[in-house]
Every structure is written in structure tokens, then in C-alpha cells.
Specification:
17 strands; binds flavin-adenine dinucleotide
Length: about 475
């Protein structure tokens, strides 16, 4: 049987290769380092962690990333096995000795009889006779391959920078202050005339907000990233620094809106949030891409009326990246719709983070293996962390056509991507009514318990399909 080719031996490609070989199929893993370097990698090890050594929270009961860890462990992940074996103390987080971690992944893959590792750059689209390929070349995909992918997918389908606006959990917005309305009540395609959440600012609040943006601590760019500013994609603090009124004439325009809580008062400026996912659980702050440090974003954005208690599913950013407009281009099993022999995995699909990249590699590997064996690829339930992440990549996002950066942007796994509970817990084990943080914890526990139950059923179904 012909091998499955995996291009890129990072977090996603290493996991994908492992999953395929674990299903008894041959894999060729093509990794360009050390023949060709990237701007961020420093070694020739597979699954190198390019920056922090943290896999973030390992709490699988109340945290979406901890849940993803646990699901991956149950799905036989090599990345999680190597991480667990190379833990360093980090409180509730899973942090690893980066060299030991990478060495463990590299040696497990090198020792597997069904895996061949070739140290070479794939400098263009893979040869036509490779009938099953996983492209997992990451945020720093080599330029020739990136150009070839761009030629194959279309000019605006592959982005080289992300421009991330913060995303807020819908149920943390104070609708006694904010209100739903589209400018001039325009319905637009797919809209209902009340598609935006609007947060009103008085003149004094606006002035303070602009001052805070200008004074806030920012993150610089790496020298190799360049400065990707272009009009329509400027960080909010750069706009603020260009002139006091710039934001009021840009993303914070107060026109075409009437505040039902105070119809006589015209807001001086308005922050708009737009629905981000089909579930309607997440709303992004329109035009608020930013290089402010995360702590500063939380502090400053919570001064916006209506967002005093905002819970952020994602904070803003702007980085060198390489990612596809995946919801438009990829099918449900991560194949390029126009060329299904090519499947994508990892950060290039628009997930964000080491663990998420590895998880998408895990799925791509399983899907490719099932296809090679003539089985139907069973999709993970949408209620699992894997299913939630896959939903974000292949269809959960709502594409918008406003000016500015493309609306599909990278995202970490978070509970806003999960279908809401049919019945959220209202009372604790002691029969007392749940309120405040206790209610939030109980809701998260119910989401993770549902996920692990549904994951167990999915694993069972996969086993049956493989045995048939
Ligand atoms: C500078 C930087 C810092 C980051 N810091 C963090 C962080 O601290 N925490 C976090 O969770 N996430 C971080 N990320 C985001 C992301 O999680 C990581 O980049 C992650 O490694 C992505 O996994 P991946 O498998 O998609 O890509 P990678 O791990 O980058 O793997 C891609 C592999 O493909 C190879 N490759 C590229 N082109 C070719 C080609 N044409 N032929 C053959 N091989 C090729 C590369 O050499 C690389 O080994 C960071 C990203 C960047 C760019």
C-alpha cells in the first residue's frame, strides 16, 4: 500500500504521523530542518516548541485546554505522552522540558518501523503521484511552498499575518447597558437588522479610553516579522495615536444607532461586537486588532460600558502567521475541497497553540488513515474539545465581508466553541441554588463531563469501524 506523506515535523505533523503509523499504515514524514531553517526554530528536533514551554492548564474538569489534553491522552497521542514524560513543575499548568520533550517525540517517530523521516524541503505542491498528503508546515511554512498553496487556493485564501480582534463570551456582556442593533437597522445578507452588540461611550469615557490605549503596554514585533500594518488592519492603539478623533471616525463611529436604554442621549462613540460563530456564543470586537499586552487588554477593554464583566474567549494580537481561510477551503475532514488528496493540519488551518496544533494533527492523521483503509472517517462529536476545534476550522465560523482583515482568524480552544448545555446545572450537590463563580464552575464541569462521555462513545464507534 502506498504511504501517506506528512509535510512538516512540528507539533501537528509529528502527531499525524504517529496516529497513521499506529493504525498500521506507512508514513513518510518530510521535515526541512536542518536542511532549511525557519526564523523561529533553533534545533533540528521534531515537535520543537518555538517559544514558551507551557501546554497551559492541565485541569480537565473546568478548562477547555485541559480537556483537550485529556481527550488527546485517551486518543493515544504521542505529543501528550512525551509531554507527560517530560513535565517540569508549573503549578496547575503542564509545562515541559523542551529538549526532553522534542527528543522523546523524535526518537519515538524514528524508532517506528512504519515511519520514514526525510530531511528535505517540499518546495512546491507535492508530486501528483502522492495521493494522500497532510500539509502541516505551520505558521512559518517555507515561502516556496506557501506561494504554491496560495496559487492553488487563491490570492486571499492564505494569509501571512493574523489580525486578531478580541472575542467575548456573549453571556458576559451586560445587555442592561449594551444593546443589539445594526447601523441604520440594515438587515444585510444573512442578518436580521440587529446583528451587532453596541456599547455606548460618553465623551469623558471615550477620552479616557483613548488615553489608556495610547499609554498601555504593547508587545513589539520580532525583527523577522517585519511590520505588517496596512490601512484597514491597523492596531487600535496605533489608530488612537494618529489623532483623538480617529477611532470615532473609524471602528467606534456612533452613527446609525439609537440606545434603547437612553434614546435621548446620543453616544459620543460606540464599540460594536459582531457574532463570531454559528452557535451565537461568541462575539468579536469589530476592528479591535491590537498589540496591547493581554493583561492590558483585559484591564482597558473592561472599562467599556457593557463589557465591565466581559469574559474573553480570545484576546487580540497581530503576528506573522500562515493560515488558510479554512472554513471556505476545507471539507469536514480537513481536505482541500478543490484537491482532496491534500489535507491540512496544525496552525496553518487557523487553530492557535501547540496543543491545538497537535490535536488537529491527531484528527488529520486519523482521517487520512481511515480513508486509506476504505473506512468512513467518523467525525468527533461537536461536544468534545476535538469536535469544537474542528467546528471552528471547518464551519463554525461566520464569514463577514466588512472592510479590514478577513474575519476568520486563529483561535485557541475555549468553551465558547462548544454547543451550550441543553440544561445547565442550577443547584449544587447540597441542593443549594448555584450563583456567581460556583455556577460558572458547575457549567464548565458539566461541559467537560459531557465531552468525555461523548468521546468514549466516539472511540467505541471508531473501533467498530476499524474491526469491520
Ligand atoms: C514565533 C512563534 C511563537 C509561538 N509561541 C507559541 C507559544 O508560546 N505557545 C503556543 O502554544 N503556541 C505558540 N505559537 C503558535 C503555534 O502553536 C506554534 O507555532 C506551533 O508550533 C504550531 O504547530 P504546527 O505543527 O502547525 O507548526 P510547527 O510546529 O511550526 O511545525 C511546522 C514544521 O514544518 C516544517 N516546514 C515548513 N515548511 C516546510 C516545507 N516546505 N517542507 C518541509 N518542512 C517544512 C518546519 O520546519 C516545522 O518543523 C508560536 C508561533 C510562532 C510563530
Amino acid at each position: 500500500m502506498r504511504p501517506i506523506h506528512v509535510i512538516g515535523g512540528g507539533l501537528a505533523g509529528s502527531e499525524a504521523a504517529w496516529q497513521i503509523a499506529s493504525r498500521g499504515l506507512r508514513v513518510v514524514l518530510h521535515e526541512m530542518r536542518p536542511v532549511r531553517a525557519t526564523a523561529a526554530h533553533k534545533t533540528d528536533g521534531l515537535a520543537e516548541l518555538v517559544c514558551s514551554n507551557s501546554f497551559r492548564s492541565d485541569d480537565c474538569a473546568t478548562n477547555a485546554i485541559g480537556l483537550l489534553h485529556e481527550e488527546m491522552r485517551r486518543l493515544g497521542s504521542l505529543v501528550m505522552r512525551a509531554a507527560d514524560a517530560n513535565q517540569v513543575p508549573a503549578g496547575g499548568a503542564l509545562a515541559v522540558d523542551r529538549d526532553g520533550f522534542s527528543a522523546a517525540v523524535t526518537s519515538a517517530l524514528a524508532a517506528h518501523p512504519l515511519i520514514e523521516i526525510r530531511r528535505e524541503e517540499i518546495a512546491g505542491l507535492p508530486p501528483a503521484d502522492w495521493d494522500s498528503v497532510i500539509v502541516a508546515t505551520g505558521p512559518l511554512t517555507s515561502p516556496v511552498l506557501a506561494e504554491a498553496i496560495r496559487d492553488a487556493t487563491g490570492e486571499d485564501a492564505l494569509a501571512f499575518f493574523d489580525a486578531i480582534a478580541p472575542i467575548v463570551h456573549r453571556d458576559s456582556i451586560d445587555l442592561d447597558v449594551a444593546w443589539f442593533q445594526s447601523r441604520y437597522d440594515k438587515a444585510g445578507p444573512g442578518g436580521g437588522g440587529a446583528d451587532y452588540v453596541n456599547c455606548p461611550l460618553t465623551r469623558a469615557q471615550y477620552d479616557e479610553f483613548v488615553d489608556a490605549l495610547i499609554a498601555g503596554d504593547k508587545i513589539g514585533f520580532h525583527e523577522w516579522e517585519g511590520t505588517p500594518y496596512f490601512d484597514g488592519c491597523l492596531p487600535i492603539e496605533i489608530m488612537a495615536a494618529r489623532g483623538r478623533e480617529t477611532l470615532r471616525h473609524g471602528p467606534m463611529k456612533p452613527v446609525g444607532l439609537t440606545n434603547p436604554h437612553a434614546p435621548e442621549e446620543k453616544p459620543y462613540a460606540v464599540v460594536q461586537l459582531r457574532q463570531d460563530n454559528r452557535l451565537g456564543t461568541l462575539f468579536n470586537m469589530v476592528g479591535f486588532q491590537t498589540k496591547l499586552k493581554h493583561g492590558e487588554q483585559t484591564r482597558i477593554f473592561r472599562t467599556i460600558p457593557g463589557l465591565q464583566r466581559a469574559e474573553f474567549a480570545r484576546l487580540g494580537g497581530l503576528h506573522r502567521n500562515t493560515f488558510l481561510n479554512a472554513p471556505r477551503l476545507l471539507d469536514a475532514t480537513l481536505r482541500l475541497k478543490t484537491e482532496p488528496r491534500l489535507r491540512f493540519a496544525g496552525q496553518i488551518t487557523g487553530c492557535e497553540g501547540y496543543v491545538e496544533s497537535a490535536a488537529v494533527g491527531l484528527l488529520a492523521g486519523r482521517f487520512a488513515a481511515a480513508e486509506r483503509r476504505g473506512e468512513d472517517a467518523a467525525l468527533p462529536p461537536a461536544t468534545t474539545a476535538h469536535g469544537a476545534l474542528l467546528g471552528h476550522i471547518t464551519g463554525g465560523h461566520i464569514e463577514t465581508i466588512d472592510a479590514g482583515p478577513r474575519s476568520y482568524q486563529p483561535m485557541n480552544v475555549n468553551f465558547g466553541l462548544f454547543p451550550p448545555l441543553v440544561r445547565a446545572p442550577t443547584h449544587g450537590a447540597d441542593g443549594a441554588r448555584l450563583r456567581g463563580p460556583a455556577k460558572t464552575v458547575a457549567r464548565k464541569q458539566a461541559l467537560t463531563a459531557r465531552a468525555l462521555d461523548d468521546l468514549a462513545r466516539w472511540i467505541g464507534r471508531e473501533r467498530v469501524a476499524a474491526a469491520e
